[in-house]
Design goal:
four-stranded mixed sheet; 16% strand; binds pyridoxal-5'-phosphate
Length: 436
């Protein structure tokens, strides 16, 4: 450890881990799809950090736009109107799913979901229950961690937010209902109707259209449209958490577009600003926006609609268009799919690959019965799995992937080239042989 990593370790927290297990690598610069450590060693970022640096590092136009705003106005209370706020919303409306026309800006995905819950409860009062899924991550503060199904995130909050009802997820590789698609007739989706009717006071349902942190779970074909329909029929708001899946990650601006779904509320964050400045966005339909004409919008933050944050949004959208990001993701995503399928054929430790666009998971298994390398319980108890060790070996080889107990997430910056994909997947191919 160098002086920087020692000081960082000693005086700041390494999150979601025991501190003794944290030996942070000192990163000194980054460019394109690569970052560099203090010894000058180069790493290919095959996960876009936390699935957020979608335009890669060092995009000059986004950087310029932020700098220009700093020269104009650095901060003003959100009660005032600014040109940058107008420009940001006008660009957002062009790329958001149809019907989303009003926005609340914050500084993280967590806050975006907190706002979504509050808006849902205000708009649907006295209904207050929110349905969420077990395999989900919606953020780390009280409200959003209470939505989060992954118990490793909320175990220290025994009295999580009341009124959250959890349901099983459409994880066909390890179906929680022990059924098989399509013979299951989407039992997990249809169950939502039963839950809503029996819980009686349900105000909203929140889903990651493709579950992210918990293993890139792509739902079967009609799952989301079925859940969307059930929500509408029962007058329950459909909230799409696109914090991870938004901003071209899956080959559309937002993942719900793959299923032509119009959510009532959408939350997004991470790459709305290319991650160069922090952001959280809660977008709502006109109907919900109009509700607050005569009803108190009881929410707000000091850093809400921060002018410097907002200045990045139009520049990001222009860069997506100039660079043809969506068509690139669709084309190169097919190449990634082919390469990963081929890996799966050859490595017996790869049980499943799944994904869309440039959002993929490789799920590793111990044997033909698909025994996972590590469970949530193992991770909860702080046991390092063989998959963690392989991710560490990959880092030694100069490739960074974000991994879960039994899977890698492959989600590079969306500007990645075919040659760079090959570099990453060739190295995965090499290290994964150790698990076979
Ligand atoms: N929702 C989803 C789907 C996420 O993946 C995340 C973070 O990874 C969040 C919410 C929380 O966002 P943040 O880390 O910006 O608070």
């Amino acid at each position: 450890m160098d002086e920087i990593s020692k000081a960082v370790k000693e005086h700041t927290f390494g999150t979601w881990r025991k501190q003794k297990d944290w030996n942070p690598l000192t990163v000194t610069r980054a460019e394109g799809v690569y970052f560099y450590d203090s010894r000058g060693k180069k790493y290919l970022d095959l996960s876009s950090q936390l699935v957020n640096v979608n335009l890669g590092y060092g995009n000059k136009r986004v950087i310029e736009s932020i700098k220009e705003q700093l020269d104009k106005i650095q901060y003003i209370s959100p009660a005032f109107a600014t040109e940058v706020r107008m420009t940001a919303v006008k660009s957002l409306i062009k790329v958001m799913p149809k019907g989303i026309t009003k926005f609340f800006f914050s500084t993280s995905g967590t806050e975006a979901n907190e706002a979504a819950v509050k808006i849902t409860r205000l708009a649907k009062n006295p209904k207050y229950k929110i349905i969420a899924r077990y395999r989900s991550y919606h953020g780390s503060t009280y409200g959003s961690v209470s939505l989060t199904g992954d118990y490793r995130r909320w175990f220290a909050e025994p009295h999580t937010l009341g009124g959250v009802v959890r349901i099983p997820e459409p994880y066909c590789f390890r179906c929680p209902l022990k059924l098989k698609y399509p013979e299951c007739n989407l039992a997990c989706a249809n169950y939502v109707d039963y839950v809503i009717k029996n819980e009686h006071n349900v105000a909203g349902i929140i889903v990651e259209p493709i579950t992210g942190t918990n293993g890139v779970i792509v739902p079967p074909k009609d799952y989301l449209t079925t859940v969307r329909k059930i929500a509408k029929e029962n007058d329950v708001l459909f909230i799409a958490d696109e914090v991870m899946t938004g901003w071209g990650r899956t080959g559309e601006w937002f993942a719900v577009n793959h299923w032509n779904i119009e959510p009532d509320i959408i939350t997004t964050a991470k790459s709305a600003t290319a991650s160069y400045v922090p952001i959280g966005i809660t977008g709502v339909s006109k109907e919900i926006g109009d509700f607050f004409e005569d009803n108190l919008f009881a929410h707000g933050h000091t850093f809400e609609a921060h002018p410097v944050t907002l200045s990045a949004i139009p520049a990001v959208i222009e860069e997506f268009e100039r660079l043809g990001i969506l068509s690139h993701v669709n084309a190169i995503g097919k190449y990634v799919a082919d390469r990963l399928s081929e890996l799966k054929e050859r490595h017996k430790s790869i049980g499943d690959i799944r994904g869309m666009g440039l959002f993929w998971a490789i799920e590793f298994v111990r044997d033909k019965k698909n025994t996972p390398f590590a469970t949530y319980d193992d991770k909860f108890n702080g046991n390092s799995s063989d998959v963690d060790k392989i991710a560490k070996r990959l880092l030694d080889e100069g490739v960074y992937v974000f991994n879960g107990p039994s899977w890698f997430i492959i989600s590079p910056p969306l500007i990645i080239t075919k040659e760079e994909i090959d570099e990453g997947i060739d190295k995965i191919d090499k290290v994964v042989s150790d698990l076979d």
